[in-house]
Amino acid sequence: MLVVKKFGGTSVANKERIFNVANRCIEDYRAGHDVVVVLSAMGKYTDELIDMAKDINENPPKREMDMLFTIGEQMSVALMAMAMNKLGVPAVSLNAFQVAMHTTSVYGNARLKRIDSERIRHELEQRKIVIVTGFQGVNKYDDYTTLGRGGSDTTAVALAAALNADRCEIFTDVDGVFTADPRKVKGARKLDNITYDEMLELATLGAGVLHNRSVELAKKFGVTLVVRSSLNTEEGTKVRRGSKMEKMLVSGVAADTDTARIAVIGLKDEPGVAFKLFNALAQHNINIDMILQSYGREGTKDISFTVARDDADEAAKVIDENFSEYEKVDVNKTVAKVSIVGAGMQSNAGVAAKMFEALYDENINIRMISTSEIRVTVLIDDKNTERAMQAVHDKFALGER
Amino acid sequence: MLVVKKFGGTSVANKERIFNVANRCIEDYRAGHDVVVVLSAMGKYTDELIDMAKDINENPPKREMDMLFTIGEQMSVALMAMAMNKLGVPAVSLNAFQVAMHTTSVYGNARLKRIDSERIRHELEQRKIVIVTGFQGVNKYDDYTTLGRGGSDTTAVALAAALNADRCEIFTDVDGVFTADPRKVKGARKLDNITYDEMLELATLGAGVLHNRSVELAKKFGVTLVVRSSLNTEEGTKVRRGSKMEKMLVSGVAADTDTARIAVIGLKDEPGVAFKLFNALAQHNINIDMILQSYGREGTKDISFTVARDDADEAAKVIDENFSEYEKVDVNKTVAKVSIVGAGMQSNAGVAAKMFEALYDENINIRMISTSEIRVTVLIDDKNTERAMQAVHDKFALGER
After folding, report:
1. Residues of A in contact with B75 (CB under 8 A)
2. How many CB atoms are closer than 10 A to CB A37?
3. The model's pTM
């Protein structure tokens, strides 16, 4: 069996943890498996590198930032190889050039295009554990690139796909994917299985165990993902293609408080207004999430949308600078999104209504609603977030199998 | 004009010094020159990496040590590019893969085989300052290698040769090459010019401004080397091919206290004894410096030689384990080598005698003597080192032009 195992920065933050990871990988190796390990930079090292750079140049060229960033993972993989060697197991560390990991050109946020598997296969044939730098790639100019947020997860999944691995294990500090955040919702239960689509909705909605890019990639190539804890040997949660049989009505509740609502009141009701509005925002790289358009007073319409909380003021500014024909812009930064996700939802009426009922029972006001085939999201006041999650979780009895 | 400028770790040890180096390079750039900069790892960062590795594995695989080491220079070059960018000058950092720097396979002590100049030339044509990682290379397996001691100097000279640069400036914390160490010898004078061969002897003998590998390479490719200070704008010392006219009788005095003498007394006087002795030492990677063989008592001979002080005990052990037919091994770790170097020496009798006279005047006993065409070296008790240097320096009036 060929296994790709990915460990994040906290899992390799110090000597003790490095040896912990080494031992876990060696277990699989000794069981006869081929083991490829993907590592992030140690602990907060990437942040230290950012501080180092900003001290020299508060606005460093992105190309050079990536050149600096990549040393973080290279440090991790070299030390890990030394640790495994110390434990008597042959291991070899490889960076993005050595693999090679080909990406698009854009610095700081590149996409993986192609991974050469030759070198890794050669090392595996020598019965070595192969330790690969996550997060980094090389573009067509032979420059280092980094993959942006969730980059190391993406590296691991892409490697698993390129090597046709039997599974890709993503190690985190939680036991797997839960029906809701167990720190916030009583009775939250670990899921044994979840579909790619459900995981995607959860990732997008701030459940945050896996970055959606890695889940999308896993879905595309049919890579069996396992989310599990680096602190214990629990089985974790398997993310894979779901069959109808397995589909749960609702598999989880997620909340995201990093959001703000912008309402543009009294826009002229004529063709192209929405296009112009969102085009202006897109040109300022402001990502829009939920959108709601309603009739305003005579001859006008209102458009509300949500953005990341940090982008709210700039969004309002962009509107102010690009539009004149509206009544007012209202920014609300004390909102939160609460969502239910489940692949079974699409064939089952009444799921949304049941969620609204749970919130009504708690007297929680819904400000916006957005749905996809396998998700229902509501926008509420953020002070009610945990109460809302608990109510919805209880209503769907997610804590029970 | 194309200039290669090499700065060591102390020159880039902190933000202030990084900007100092950036400014010096930008001066040349603004004067219209093409500038290639070679950097070492910042300050004592390589030592920190060693500590980090040893904490994990006291005997780490050399391949992984090199993987770890190379991040030091990559950090330096990325930060330098950011500093130059901050000062408004386009700059690009390149590592050993990007250049590319091809080396022999051996980890920790590789030799440069070939440097591709295409990428650097391309960047220079874009009017960028090109900042290259010193000390590192890539071998035929696509693994990082490091060049061992003096590696960054070697990188700089090899780059200058590959790019056909007009000069290669090696920046240090001294003003250039002196007739003797100015901290130890009164009246020591900075030399404006010195030949490759003289510099080679001085480097080998512990004058320590330049590593002999870099000087050998400069000689081979006729690269004009300039040794100068990173702290001021003095002209420094030019190292180049010397004509007969310019040859000085004696150009400098050097001392090396990192040495120990091993005397093997009473070896059997038969063919092959010396071969077997030094072959055994070579197989344990012990480098031999001076060798002296003399007749011992009837039917035996004595062989004395010098090694680096750290190798002395192991050398004695190797002899003990591999030979039985000798009387005793004597290890003396309180010796020093003092040498005079000068390209004019070879055509001038009496130079050695004059050196011995200087030592005799000071009542300093000579334990061994070794000579080359342009060098005379004596082994003395190390407590007499500075006194010997001063006496020889004065005798040859090296402080006067």
Report:
1. 52, 68, 71
2. 32
3. 0.81
